[in-house]
Amino acid sequence: MKTSLGPLLYCWDKGKVTDFYQHVAQSDIELVYLGEAVCSRRRELKNSDYLELARMLKGSGKQVVLSTLALIEAAGELSELKKQVNNGEFMIEANDMAAVGYAREAGVPFVCGPHINLYNAASIQKLADWGMQRFVMPIELSKSWLAKVLEQLGGNPNRPEVEVFGHGHLPLAHSARCFTARHKGLAKDGCQTICRDYSKGLLVQTQESQPLLRLNGIQTQSAACVNLAGEWAHMEAMGVDWFRISPASGTLPTLERTQEMGTDECNGYWFAEAGFNRTQPEP
Amino acid sequence: MELLCPAGNLASLKVALNAGADAIYLGLKDDTNARSFAGLNFTPERLKEARALTRAAGKKLFLTLNTFPKPGEEQRWYAAIDLAADIGADALIVADISLLDYAHSRYPALPLHLSVQASATNLAALSLYKDAFNVERVVLPRVLSMKQVRDLAKASPVDLEVFAFGSLCIMAEGRCHLSSYVTGQSPNTGGSCSPAQHVRWQEQGSDRLTRLNEVLIDKSGANEQMGYPVVCKGRFIADDSDSPEYLLESPTSLNTLSLLPELARAGIVSLKIEGRQRSPAYVEQVTRVWRAAIDTYLRNPDGYQVQTEWDRVLGKLSEGQITTLGAYERRWQ
Fold it and tell me: Where does [4Fe-4S] cluster bind (chain A) (predicted)?
């Protein structure tokens, strides 16, 4: 199993994004997903900027995949998406079935991100027939669920690669509503890209001070950071191909495969429990 | 324009037909649909009765199969498709790709409706489902503005159905993990959002605390109207503030009576009433109001006005007695 870096889900200014990927270029991460997956109103970086970063990373020996939006509503977003799918240089990560549709139409290979609902082997096989090379397991599924899926796919020599969202704040939901703008009293159409002010989303706690969510524009994330590093050996044994890290700060996390989990970390989904649970698996 | 009403049992189905539903949607008594609650839904025998009743009334029956099959247990979902074909359901409402594929390849004459849980919000997604599985109709997620619905309807290769009234999901449906994050139960796999066994109400002094798997979702005065505790309608505290707020949405229901003419002009073929988990009395009242509204509109499209009485009835049946146009209205977003 190797490490991949998921798309940056927050809105950072261009300088910070560029610095971050320069840092990534020097790291031992082999696969990098790049691009805006949350909101089309974020325009700190244009497609051409992402392509430039992609080429830089490729030059450093990385595999690069261009990530696309998770929620596509407007015609303008669709035409942008079509351009991304047909960029002719890099594979794309589909996060909406629109991207799957365009890739299928164009006959180009693609990756399915965590927002495409692939819950069973027959669906995965269908998408593989359409050109899917790899998929990220939906975030709410467990080790035992994935094991069964992999068992079903087992004998298939063309089985797509499997990636697991292993580290970072979980993207739990997407809405038409921008929660960050609304919290700041701004209309979505006049949002001033206010999510830029929250480089790791806006933490939301219950009235008993229990951290619960992070508001990230139209996306709602988990307050806790999922950390499955302790499960590395299991994942590898199961046949998982990639362990995804989701960027959370300007630096990359060090994955401690033996250490106990922090109080702000969770792993419940992997053990078929509530996602926010923190379970210490039996050794 | 079809009025599509929910039925959690035969009693609801009968009152809905009586009150003017054109079509009924329902689910089986297991986890093959996203309203898998105790005491709700239909056994195969009851489903056959439902089929007979709707047929006798000259109305349609749709079977909802909108969860995602568990690996190794797919047979339960396939059997439900076989059953729908066997009883002659007028359509299957499906979200999962493997189920669309199964139904399309085995029963090409059985109309497929793409469930809202498939989260298809744009022309490219609609076209894909049409092309790959000959989907006849798509149920649109509650994330589109009225303008976006109109634009989509103009170009759509499939019929479109929208939610007209009921509980308001504010997230792109089928891709919301708030319930499973807090309870471990997901609409996609287990068939319900924030299931009742995780809900606990607790009195504390003059406050009432609402908990979901022990997580405090809201705290309110004992006399305050409270909604069902779902994460997206809780009161929480943002890091840059001291006071609890409805940071995602307040307890409210979707009510699009005022949009009916626009939806009709856009060419929407079906108006869906949410609420298979609701009582027959609820289903009857809501159906009656919507029947009256649609008939009023059809008799005189230009003279259509929402009657105060309709709003009053629906308001009383709404969460927190508050209604909204949700994402249809750009300002809401």
Answer: 39, 178, 191, 195
CA separation for the pair B114, A175 (Å, rounded): 20
Nearest-CA neighbor of B114 among B266, B270, B5, B8?
B270
Domain-located, residue B182: no
Contacts of A268 in chain B (CB under 8 A): 184
Q: Which of residues 224-263 of A touch B (CB under 8 A)?
A: none
Asked if residue A258 has pLDDT above 70, the reply is no
Confirm whether A271 is domain-assigned. Answer: no
| B34 or B245, higher pLDDT | B245
**B89 within some domain:** yes
Tell me which residues of chain A, numbers 114 to 173, contact chain B at a CB-CB cutoff of 8 Å: 115, 117-123, 126-127, 138-141, 145, 148-149, 151-152, 170, 172-173
CB A254 within 8 A of CB A247: no
On the question of pLDDT at A282 being above 70, the answer is no
* Dist. CA B238–CA A279, nearest whole Å: 27
Residue type at B324 in one-letter notation? T
B235 neighbourhood in chain A, CB within 8 Å = 207
Q: What is the ipTM of this complex?
A: 0.96
Six token digits for residue B257: 């009576």
Residue A280: is its pLDDT beyond 90?
no
Q: Could you tell me if residue A237 is inside a domain?
A: yes
* Owning domain of residue B193: 187-250
Note down the domain range covering A78: 2-170+225-257
**Mean pLDDT of all residues in B91-104:** 98
Average of per-residue pLDDT across A136-144? 98
B53 in any annotated domain: yes
> Is residue A184 assigned to a domain?
no
* Strand boundaries in chain B, DSSP class E: 2-6, 23-27, 60-65, 91-94, 112-114, 137-139, 159-167, 199-204, 207-212, 215-221, 237-238, 253-255, 270-273, 323-324
- pLDDT tens-digit readout, A189-219: 999 999 999 999 999 999 999 999 999 999 9
Chain A nearest-CA distance from B220, in A, is 11
Which of B210, B225, B250 lies at the terminal end of a domain, its last residue? B250
What is the percent of chain A where pLDDT is above 70? 98
